[in-house]
Design a protein that fits this description.
The protein folds into 3 domains: 91 residues, Immunoglobulin-like (Sandwich), CATH 2.60.40; 99 residues, Immunoglobulins (Immunoglobulin-like, Sandwich), CATH 2.60.40; 113 residues, no CATH class. The chain is mainly β. The protein starts with 5 loop residues before the first strand and ends with a strand. It is built from no helices and 28 strands. Strands 9, 11, 12, 13, 15, 16 and 17 form a 7-stranded mixed beta sheet that branches. Strands 4-3-6-7 form a 4-stranded antiparallel beta sheet, with no helix packed on it. A 4-stranded antiparallel beta sheet has the order 23-24-25-26, with no helix packed on it. A hairpin with a 2-residue loop joins strand 27 and strand 28.
Length: 359
């Protein structure tokens, strides 16, 4: 006597590839074959009804038997050596979908798979041939031996926007691997696989650029530094410059740019960032969240600086090129009214940001 087989859960699979349906049998006569029947849920039409001779508790579906983007219902029965058939199993529902296309856009694939900061906000695009929405994603970081360093928390998204994850503490020139795993509401799992990358950034060691000069006749070394004092002009919301004698200071030292009647400070004389390399130190406090508070212009483009989630961030735009650089500082903790010193160094078009809360 044959017992009724039990189908294992059928995970979402790509119909263009071969797939194996697995079932279990508890007791009864020896199984020598099975018969799998698959119906399309939308109209209950039988799209597959085939038998296979095998002692194994599995049934192999050839590629292109089903169609991606379709919901199906499967049931199976078994046969013994005397050609007796068991009852059909309980039917199970499943979907066929092609794997999603995942692309990590933050990595510079044309330049040795580099990223350009110690702290990087990775972005990954999601698309799926049948238009299936995303449910959740997770980033996983591995070391050079492909050992898991960290599995980041699962995040929920529909895939219409880039899938982001901030990863801090990346060591300069160290080899890492990154993997992004996704899951759809219908159980369609995707992965980028392990994608290698290397951080490449410039770690600041001095707060100013110094030039040494050996003075042989004096037995001494002369050290020079070029520092530009930036003269700023204050404008109101109507675009009118406020006379410097009428500017109101806080503690005789600070200008409160959070005031509604103070629109912007402009440095339009004696200051530019025409050169490729420069250093900038900026003292500030009570910065607004996720709002640009400093813009630096050059004939080639501009830099925009803003604060978000206890980090200073800079967008770099270059005119005429499909390029946008993104740079992130170290994380910092401050209390209300505490002063910050922001250090920004551009070297070879790369930017390093460091922030130090001051007492």
């Amino acid at each position: 006597m044959l017992t009724t087989p039990i189908l294992n859960d059928i995970k979402t699979f790509n119909a263009t590839k071969e797939n194996t349906i697995i079932f279990n049998v508890i007791g009864g006569n020896q199984v020598v074959g099975n018969n799998l029947v698959i119906e399309r849920v939308s109209d209950n039409v039988v799209v597959y009804n085939q038998s296979q001779e095998t002692f194994n508790f599995r049934h192999t579906l050839p590629p292109d038997t089903l169609i991606n983007g379709t919901n199906y219902r499967a049931r199976i029965r078994t046969k013994d050596i005397n050609s007796n058939w068991s009852n059909f199993s309980v039917a199970l529902l499943f979907w066929c979908y092609s794997e999603p296309d995942l692309n990590i856009t933050t990595i510079d694939y044309d330049n040795q798979n580099r990223v350009y900061n110690q702290t990087v906000i990775f972005e990954t695009t999601y698309s799926q041939s049948e238009g299936e929405q995303l449910q959740s994603y997770r980033y996983l970081l591995y070391n050079e031996n492909k050992d898991l360093l960290r599995s980041f928390p699962e995040q929920f998204a529909d895939g219409s926007q880039p899938l982001t994850q901030e990863i801090a503490g990346l060591e300069n020139s160290q080899l890492y691997y990154l993997e992004i795993k996704t899951l759809s509401p219908n159980g369609n799992a995707g992965t980028t696989g392990l994608v290698h990358f290397r951080p490449f950034y410039i770690a600041p060691k001095l707060t100013v650029t110094v030039t040494p000069e050996n003075l042989l006749d004096q037995g001494a070394i002369k050290v020079s530094a070029n520092i530009i004092q930036i003269i700023l002009k204050l404008y109101d919301n109507n675009g009118n410059q406020i006379n410097s004698m009428n500017v109101e200071y806080v503690d005789d030292d600070w200008i409160d740019m959070n005031r509604t009647d103070y629109a912007k400070l402009v440095a339009d004389e004696g200051f530019n960032i025409l050169q490729d390399n420069f250093l900038l130190q900026l003292w500030c406090k009570d910065l607004p969240e996720n709002k640009v508070f400093l813009t630096l212009y050059s004939p080639q483009g501009k830099l925009e600086m803003f604060k978000l989630n206890n980090r200073i961030r800079v967008y770099k735009y270059i005119d005429g090129l499909d390029f946008q650089g993104y740079f992130v500082s170290n994380e910092f903790e401050i209390i209300d009214g505490q002063e910050l010193m922001i250090y920004m160094k551009q070297d070879n078009h790369l930017i390093d940001l460091q922030v130090e809360p001051l007492q």
